[in-house]
């Protein structure tokens, strides 16, 4: 059996074994699958995730970039969750695909040299919860490639953006948005057209 096949089986087994056991605001299994499919459909390779928590969505993204030949940068502000995520990445055998950063994404993102073709925004600021999604978008937008996807969690469950993110996108005029309803949480997918 080749090394790649062993790794693929390991990540699949890990995700199945941990299905419904995630307790730190992690995405549901169905949304993880939806993220994997999106990355594969768009052949995305440079991925930024805002809000690692303990790593459920990151592992789904890693499962996808293993096939596209890409890599992921993920950012988490909480030290314990970040450390648990590192353990989970190791257990799922995907650490080599992930650069996990500990700190405030709003401060870290402007310091990144990379540009991205896929962003998953899944964090809420404790101080400005309702502005979070727009603030993270504004920080990331200059680093999103044309043709790239900006995806956001919790768009149909009332926990996420209160509408100002979508109003802002409409004003910009260069994004095309659709919603994935794999779970009740909803994921928006906004493609940067120019
Ligand atoms: C909804 S959870 C992420 C779940 C994760 N995507 C998953 O599916 O496993 C949101 C995470 O964002 C983190 N967070 C909140 N504000 C942040 C910030 N400014 N920078 C980085 N992470 C932040 C929280 O600590 C929390 O763990």
UniProtKB/TrEMBL annotation:
Organism (species): Halpernia frigidisoli
One Pfam assignment: Methyltransf_3
Gene3D superfamilies found in the cross-reference section: Vaccinia Virus protein VP39
SUPFAM superfamilies: S-adenosyl-L-methionine-dependent methyltransferases
GO biological process: methylation
Keywords: Methyltransferase, S-adenosyl-L-methionine, Transferase
InterPro entries: SAM-dependent_MTases_sf (IPR029063), SAM_O-MeTrfase (IPR002935)
Protein name stated in the entry: Predicted O-methyltransferase YrrM
Cited CDD domains: AdoMet_MTases
Protein origin, superkingdom: Bacteria
GO molecular function terms attached to this record: O-methyltransferase activity
């Amino acid at each position: 059996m080749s090394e790649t096949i062993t790794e693929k089986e390991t990540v699949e087994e890990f995700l199945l074994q941990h299905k419904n056991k995630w307790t730190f605001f992690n995405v549901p299994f169905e949304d993880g699958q939806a993220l994997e499919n999106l990355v594969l459909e768009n052949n995305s390779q440079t991925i930024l995730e805002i809000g690692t928590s303990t790593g459920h969505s990151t592992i789904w993204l890693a499962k996808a970039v293993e096939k596209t030949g890409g890599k992921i940068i993920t950012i988490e502000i909480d030290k314990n969750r970040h450390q648990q995520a590192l353990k989970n990445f190791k257990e799922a055998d995907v650490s080599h695909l992930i650069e996990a950063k500990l700190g405030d994404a709003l401060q870290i993102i402007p310091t990144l040299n990379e540009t991205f073709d896929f962003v998953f925004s899944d964090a809420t600021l404790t101080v400005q919860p309702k502005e979070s999604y727009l603030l993270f978008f504004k920080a990331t937008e200059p680093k999103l490639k044309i043709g790239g996807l900006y995806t956001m969690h919790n768009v149909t469950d009332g926990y996420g953006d209160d509408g100002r993110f979508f109003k802002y996108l409409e004003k910009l005029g260069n994004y095309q948005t659709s919603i994935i309803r794999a779970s009740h949480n909803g994921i928006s997918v906004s493609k940067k057209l120019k």
